[in-house]
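Sample A.
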Amino acid sequence: MARYIDCDSHVEECEETWDYLDEQYQMRRPMIVTVEGDPQKLTQQNAYWLVDHKITPKTTGHGATLGGSPPTSRLAHGKQFSIGSQTLMKVEERLADMDRFGLEVQVIFPTVFLETMTDDVRFEANLMHSYNVWMSKRCAQSGGRLLFPALLPMRDAALAAQEVRAAKELGAVAVATYGTAGSHLLHSEHLDPVWQAAVEVDLPICVHTGWSHPGLTWSGTDIYAGQILGFTLPVLMAFHSFLGAGLLDRFPSLRVAFLEAGGDWLPYMVHRMDHYHDIDTQLGHGVRGKRKPSAYLKEGRVYLSVEGDEPLLRPVIERLGAQHVMVSADMPHSEARENAFQEIKERTDIAEKDKEWILGKAAEEFYRL
């Protein structure tokens, strides 16, 4: 059996994360605010990041979000993982947690950036750069078992392209973004310098779930709506950008993975996009993609992560090929996916040769480990 490679888990950021901000931003570094006697017993989120007089996460009302960062909250302390493991401040404790679940390698994504921390685009870029530098130092202590994708400030294409090149120097195995660049779709041509930079340094693109589109985020009136709509739908929007709107044509060596949205949506999206590609091509509506989206799935450049209990996993494998399906433990978040690898291993509807790819070999290929 292939070694287990977790394509997508997380860190809960801590105060040290911001130690690498430029001097001009040090006075604005995020601060932790704790609320005693907080009535929100549903989330146990009684601690927040305060950035430019705005709190993150926002757990009630329009634009509701949820996250386990900062790690001083009751939510964080109620998890089965130690604070040292969650924050990577004690790398040995995260490695011990990985050992408990049989994980050899883990690729670590951020938590606090799942939503927009500040409206100041340049400040956001510097926050992300500080995070990237900090993660490079944390992962360097793991003996190669903890890896990271560098996060990109996509609301400023020039700064994002600059961060791609910095990512290569920091030792990142990929670059990460969310499904939109603010209200812009990722195939917007002003973002092309970002994808060109990724091609030049040979880093794949990870599109992760997150509250990146302001309109979709605002539409969520509670955490449940926020998770299903604002958090998830941007990934499908990015899928359109890459396979339906010409990005994979303009950058023929680009590799992309769609993470934490599951895989059950893939057959639906591909069927629907193929259908309208044919219709709109016949009607002369100016379809951007040169081919039907299903054709790009056969090129070996598109990957996605799945969960262990997905009922449509077999059709996903048939569409995409097991060589491009990865699995995520999502440690240390609260979605209870840590046993996803065991669930995949125990499934009887998946061939053993396919399981080897899903449990590790596909991630090894995508991240070029």
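Sample B, a different protein:
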Amino acid sequence: MTVSLGVHAGQQNLAMDELRALWRKLDEARVDWISAWDHFYEAPPKGGTQPHFEALATLGALAAETRHARLGCLVFYVGYRNPALLAKAATTLDHISGGRFELGLGAGWHIWEATAYGYPFPDIGTRLDMLEEAAQIVRRLLTEERTTFSGKHFQVDDASCLPAPIQPRLPIWIGGVGEKRTLKIVADHADGWNAAYLDPGEFARVNGVLSHWCEDAGRDPASLRRAVNVTFNLALDDAGVARQRRQLAEDWGDAADRVAGGALLTTPDGAVERIMAYVEAGADEVNVALRAPWDEEALDAYLETVMPAVRRAAG
């Protein structure tokens, strides 16, 4: 049993030089995965009051600054960019990174930033239709010499995407936990599934639903990688954990209880057990989600103590 240990590093409340230093630190510590997220405003939402960098440009810098970790965005909202553009960006980032880029897609949720920036934000059914079309277009552009696709929301006409990615099959991740549509789209079109802020028991339950969708599609469930994001609220002692809990409540408001269920809200001594609970629930990859400011000593403890211990436990 192996597990990928990654860091989902939000590009907010940090100068670009600070982000670059963080990426280098994580890469040198041999995290398996580093990702950004796709927002124009901060998350959780605060009305566009915090500094925040755009995802695609950020990923170009991330790809150039690192040498070892796999890279991606969890996840691009398909309403912000034409999927053919995302395919072109994906192959470009794969070349910048030397074959380490993986593309995440999703149906979006941040209506406040979309409205502020003048993007339509249709109902969830429509957004899921867009996601399903986008996944097909991206896959075909990354694997076929020429692609024609005529959907309700997106079209391409005899399009090429050259150069091809370095990877023979650049992985596509789809994020979300909707059991009726999202997980079916994952089973039909994705190489990996990403879920955010579920507790281990709920992750196991939803993961089981996804496996049923794979079986319905005639797909081996083991062919699909499963990843979970957990918020990084690690602290060195119980007093620090209490402070992290208060901060989480302040940041997330009414959603705090739900998010806390999917948080690494513990000391380093409890972190290994917490992460292994996700592995036992079926997670192939566990990513801690960093939002500045965080406890730097706790991050060091995670990289230097917790990660090696989890790898030993996962064997």
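Observation for Sample B: The chain has one domain: 4-314.
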